[in-house]
Amino acid sequence: MNTHYDDATIEFYSTKALIYAATAREGVSPYLQRFLALLSPGACILELGCGGGLEAEFMMASGFDVHATDGVPEIAAEAEKRLGVRVEVLRFDQLSADSRFDAVYAAASLLHVPVNSLASVLSKIHCALKPGGKHFASYKSGGADGRDTFGRYFNYLSREQAERQYLIAAPWSRLVIEEMTGGGFDGVQGPWLTVLAEKRLD
């Protein structure tokens, strides 16, 4: 495992890009719609780990200025086919923007960041946000990191771990963590967390 990402996980998405993009769920998450309702019309959104581009497509159609990215070139290429625009190949640890985005959206993507590197990535996200900017992320939960049946690495954060990582990363003005049940590519239902964080205005 690399310090900031897991090679086996990237290899999985690289070799399964066509299947992964083709089996993306139909319809966007209600959490996305709730998040977008918090933003101003036309807000500039960075999406980290856009996958096949389903939710980026929805955000664009809703009038938002979306910068879609994915850390796997093959996945980014599939998203480009759907969106008709360039999708930047960007690993989370490569993020270097400074106060550029109104929002950073990362659904079911940061859950692949090794636990010891997560605070560093979250700090980069905080830096990329404009003052008052908002961040959403969702994570498979569990409390101990590990791998699924496909060999993909997950940090499987508990609620307490998630709160600790976010507070270590940056001085957010708002941090809301909710627990839920959901599934994934493996078809297994289990515990998830959603995180809504907001950067201070000052």
From TrEMBL:
Record-given protein name: Methyltransferase
Domain Methyltransferase, residue spans: 45-133
Gene Ontology BP terms: methylation
Single GO MF descriptor: methyltransferase activity
UniProt keyword Acetylation, yes or no: no
Pfam families registered for this protein in UniProt: Methyltransf_25 (PF13649)
InterPro entries for this protein: Methyltransf_25, SAM-dependent_MTases_sf
CDD domains assigned: AdoMet_MTases
Species of origin: Blastomonas aquatica
Record's keyword terms, sorted: Methyltransferase, S-adenosyl-L-methionine, Transferase
